[in-house]
Amino acid sequence: MLSCKDLVMHSSDLLDGRLSFRRQLAVRTHLAICWKCRRFIRQLRMAQQVIRALPEDPIPNVDALAQNLAERQRGGG
């Protein structure tokens, strides 16, 4: 039987679909009985979805913003 610590160690591989059949069975068996680990995996999946939904360039025109900040620091803005 997998411990909670073991599940955490394999959680990334679980989400990425890189577990062997045997390990996947052990993880799913553990998740069937452990509500804390189910919640943990659910939170990881949610975080993964949020990260994937972020835009590739979260700060558009970062060079222009950096230049504007530099000008303000020099007293030019």
Automatic annotation (TrEMBL):
Q: Superkingdom of the source? A: Bacteria
**Domain (Putative zinc-finger): residue spans on this chain:** 4-38
Question: Any idea what this protein is called?
Answer: Zf-HC2 domain-containing protein
Its taxonomic path starts at: Bacteria, Pseudomonadati, Pseudomonadota, Gammaproteobacteria, Pseudomonadales
